[in-house]
Amino acid sequence: MNTRVFAVAGLGLVAAFVVAAQERVDRPAASWPALPYWLPSAALPAERAETPAGPDEAVEPVALHALPLVAIPPCRLLDTEAEGRPALLRGESLEIAVLERCGVPATAQALSVRLEAVESTRDGALVLGGAGTAAGDGGRVRLDPATADAVTGIVPLDESGRLVIVSAATSSRAVLDVNGYYAAESAVRSLNALAGDVTLQAGESIAITSEGNTVTIAVKADERPGVDRPESPARPQVRSVLQVQPSRSITGLPPARAMAPPSSSMYVAGALGLPDTTALGAGVLTLGGDRFLHNYGTRADAGNTFVGENAGNLTTEGADNTAIGYQSLGSNTLGNGNTATGRASLYSNSTGWQNTATGSYGLHSNTTGYQNTASGISSLYANTTGHENTASGSYSLRSNATGCENTAVGSRSLFSNTTGSENTATGRGSLSSNTTGCENTATGWRSLYSNTIGSVNTASDPSDPASRRARFGCGESSSRRS
């Protein structure tokens, strides 16, 4: 009695598994993510792929064309049970004619597919590829039922547009769906709101030429309607040229400078035009995904120029600012007339105006300070609200925060000054320890070096001139010898 119960229960579980698998296959094909482009592996010669160029060998550009995905509604290409053969046995293969089925045109070169194994014995794999390639070295999709029920991928078609599926399992029912194909674009799809196939024609002022994979559209500047630009030695005729090249090499460059796969490139001969930068990112040239060149400003005549990774920003209302270098003037909001040259120079500036920073981290912390001049790495680095300071030399006035009208010339001069004002230090290390002292004048190497809070002091180089000359290998002056 118990044996019968277990037998009936076992049969019930098997029946439930078969029904569940049948329901999974019989439901409409669902879509899946597919790559937007596919690069035919045959586009790269085998000898080029297997043999890298030597260090002194010039690498010639190779035209490799990525084909775009054309999406179609998910469609079933094959169900072996529907073909009258419920299962593929080990070693058996089945060819599948694809073209003109499920919306796949004759121009298709590859398919985005999903291969599923149903009721497989899980002791071997299913391999899908172009006819003649599934068991070879061509593009393949391989499914091992022991590790997954289904797999997606891209599979190329053979010259006749066929696929072949090969079974290495004892028995397996195969289901194959397609949701897109890859084919070369043969026509312009849209141009200035026009739809369908659009034909471009040359005219009196427009020339369209093609050579290989390059299409060139050229416009003579002096032939544009309503523009009178006579040619002269000072103003020669200018031809604006756009070259579009769907390849991985740069036309016109020697092989040693050509970009090797897998980079793609566009070569522009002549002028490249960009619109004024907007807050949405139009008119921005990027480098590695970061802003690199733009001129954002809320005013039409803002006159801003930003060059360098994340230099400037896309929110500033300031005008007449120039920033060159990584993150220079990166936080500017209302500041006008600032010039920052060097990594993170004037980085924190918000409303400060007419500041000039030359050198990495110059005036880095300045927020509202104005009319400061910093020349040298980290000069006036900590300045926040101090104004009308002049620092020339690496780390000069490095610690100044709110001090005003200081002048420091020489490396580390007035280095520790924080709030002191109206100090003048000329020479390396002069007034280096001054913090809050005011109206001091120090001239010469390390003069007034130890002064911290003293004010209204005047000092020249305290060291002995003879010992100084000896330290630097200098002789006596001609006036002393006479």
CATH class of the domain at 23-44 and 60-182: Mainly Beta
Radius of gyration based on Cα positions:
37 Å
Helix/strand/pairing category: mainly beta
Strand content: 25-35%
How would you describe the shape? elongated
What is the averaged pLDDT score?
75
Helical element count? 4
Proportion of residues in helical segments: under 10%
Quaternary structure type: single chain
Largest sheet: 12 strands, mixed
Q: Which CATH-level-2 architecture of the domain at 23-44 and 60-182?
A: Sandwich
- Strand order, largest beta sheet: 16-17-18-19-20-21-22-23-24-25-26-27
Which topology of the domain at 23-44 and 60-182 does CATH recognise?
Answer: Jelly Rolls
Poorly predicted residue ranges: 1-21, 42-63, 134-138, 221-240, 245-264, 477-482
Corresponding CATH superfamily of the domain at 23-44 and 60-182: Nucleoplasmin core domain
C-alpha end-to-end distance: 132 Å
Number of strands: 27
What is shown here, in short?
With 482 residues, the chain is mostly beta strands. 9% of the residues lie in helices and 26% in strands. Strand 11 and strand 12 (194-195) form a beta hairpin.
Structural topology:
Elements: H1 2-26, E1 37-38, H2 46-50, E2 67-79, E3 88-89, E4 93-97, E5 110-118, E6 126-130, E7 140-143, E8 150-156, E9 162-167, E10 171-182, E11 190-191, E12 194-195, E13 206-211, E14 214-220, E15 239-244, E16 285-287, E17 290-294, E18 305-307, E19 322-324, E20 339-341, E21 356-358, E22 373-375, E23 390-392, E24 407-409, E25 424-426, E26 441-443, E27 458-460, H3 465-472, H4 478-481
Parallel strand pairs: 18-19, 19-20, 20-21, 21-22, 22-23, 23-24, 24-25, 25-26, 26-27
Antiparallel strand pairs: 1-2, 2-10, 3-10, 4-9, 5-8, 5-10, 6-7, 6-9, 11-12, 13-14, 14-15, 16-17, 17-18
